[in-house]
Amino acid sequence: MIYKLxxxxxxxxxxxxxxxKHILECGQVFxxxxxxxxxxxxxxxxxxxxxxxxxxxxxxxxxNPEYFVKYFDLDTDYNLIKEKLKxxxxxxxxxxxxxxxxxxxxxxxxxxxxxxxxxxxxIKRIQKIIDKLCTIGKVSDNYNCFPTIxxxxxxxxxxxxxxxxxxxxxxxxxxxxxxxxxxLEEIKKLSTDEIYDFLIKxxxxxxxxxxCILLFGFGKKDKFPVDTxxxxxxxxxxxxxxxSRPEIQRYFENEFKENSGLAQQYLFYFERENGK
Length: 276
Prior knowledge:
Layout: E1 3-5, E2 9-12, H1 20-24, E3 32-34, E4 40-44, E5 47-53, E6 58-62, H2 65-71, H3 78-85, H4 92-97, H5 108-118, H6 123-133, E7 139-140, E8 143-144, H7 149-154, H8 157-161, H9 168-178, H10 184-187, H11 192-200, H12 207-217, H13 228-237, H14 245-256, H15 260-274
Antiparallel strand pairs: 1-2, 2-6, 3-4, 4-5, 5-6, 7-8
């Protein structure tokens, strides 16, 4: 991936591997939007980046550009991965359609809370709830940072009930309390199965949510989360054989192996943009 790091921005010159719409609108994260000029922005942890498209590049302007080099996984060459995935003839045109997708390296605890909120929910409502959750985070450059585990665990159940999260409010409070004394950096050192076992014990985390957290919050790219859109893409494009969600997940993970997560993003983005 070709990019240049400057004092307050990153210049991405390889537009074949980077597109902010593809990256931010494929279900990975929820703290993003567009500004008055139509530029995408994203907030992660304590930091914000605005992505400005130029004729021959993208400029990622940020108060911490080094953080977003890692966040956007800019040191990985996705062209090599895409060529491997395109050997699957069904997936190939979907890779071309979502050519600019990259798997974000998001903050682990932010993803845990975000995907608990995301279950059985729509994007706009998820974003609204997360924005309210972030009101207990510190303020930086006129935006709220994502709350720390300490801030989340100190918040009362009444605070969580005020978010409009419905039945998820108790899940959020219980998970905040459960993570209070947990070092997620140590959890990251575990195997995929061990992290899954840890996550599935958290209140409000089921198999699909755990798979999303593993992929987007712990960088486990061999995971393939299955939701309604993926069920639809499976039956529309791969097989008419009736299968459960765990069986569909195993089918795709067997097919795409260490690149399952990226394949899932191409499929999810294509189907949500074009499916019925």
